Amino acid sequence: MERTNFGPLTGVQILDISTMIAAPFGATLLADLGAEVTKVELPNKGDTLRTVGPWKGTEPLRWPGLARNKKSVTLNIHSAEGKEIFLKLIKDVDVLIENFRPGTLEKWGLGYDVLKAVNPKLIMVRISGYGQTGPYREKAGFGTPGTAFSGHTYLQGYPDRPPVSPSYSLLDYITGIYAAFAAVSALYHRDTHEDAEGQVVEMGLYESIFRMLEFLIAEYDQNGKVRGRSPGLAGHSSPAGTYETKDGKYVVLVCSTDSTFNRLAEAMDRPDMLTDDRYYTNSVRLKNDAEVQEIVINFIKGLTQKELQERLDHFGVPVSPILSIEDIFNDPHYAARQNIVEVEHPRLGKVKVPGVVPNFSDTPGAIRHRAPELGEHNEEILGGKLGLTAEEMAELKEKGVI
């Protein structure tokens, strides 16, 4: 039987007018789980992400993974004719995702009040640097500055060196997850409450990581402590950190609970540590962390990575090698989980991208089609769905509207 369901969100219609990473990533997550996502891009220019590295020659390599499962139409929504077409697109859409600076859509005459008048059921997900309210609402916002503003960067690095920013767009991707979460939550409310209409869901980039820092907030509130930079889980668990094995490889080991440490003590043949008042609970181990670390360092240094992994796996102690992307490509677990899959590419032939997560037993998501070329679906959507004729589309293209 031919499969007609490609995920739990099959049938949901989404319009993605956002650019770069955070909001578009949220739209892609929804598309992976079956939503029909139409990406609206500026004619002859497209999403700025199309020009962001890394590259192979002139081909951007982030685009195939971040824009898969979307359809692309070109439309200049600044223009009067473009605005008219946009409002026609909005009529049958469940969710609109945007990430312009606050006030931009309103300036173009496309604020939520205008859109809701056309489609009362419309949900609008708005991502911006600092949110739609507050004194910083109009500031330009990108992921790395947003990470600094969130308090996260202040914690990263070594105490005797400057703070370290994440080496990739961490905040953007986390915010994208929140955007997808917001969309499905608003959809659930709309569709399970009688007479419920659409609504606006919005957040600032920095808020996604700030929400994860509850330990930092409570600690300052109650203890007045300003936590500084640390390369690991300082003040949380002992032992925890990065360790070097006998064969010069690195692993990460964390004992976040006392039961985990108990298993580690057994694996190290140190049952004495289970009753020693310097080591028997996490709170006392943290006070004697230097001694604990010395014991663990010497234990790990005496084993190869393979020997260590086998021994700690046997005792149920969480440890992992620090994998490079080459290691990941060769790892059997990644292969078994289909965490890396291959998709078609119009010029590269094929390119590998992340697989779809999470996994659904009855309604699994799928990569239904590759990332689109700019305006690839103009005829299908503007012609097929909205009924524009070939002559009208040619005229609009000549004017730079599509």
Automatic annotation (TrEMBL):
Instruction: State if Transferase is listed as a keyword.
Output: yes
Q: Respond yes or no to whether keyword Transferase is given for this record.
A: yes
Q: What is the lineage of its organism?
A: Bacteria, Bacillati, Bacillota, Bacilli, Bacillales
Which Gene3D superfamilies does its entry note?
Crotonobetainyl-coa:carnitine coa-transferase, domain 1, formyl-coa transferase, domain 3
* Species of provenance: Domibacillus antri
Protein name, per record: Formyl-CoA transferase
* UniProt keyword list: Transferase
Q: Which Pfam families match?
A: CoA_transf_3
Q: Which domain of life is it from?
A: Bacteria
Recorded GO molecular functions are: CoA-transferase activity
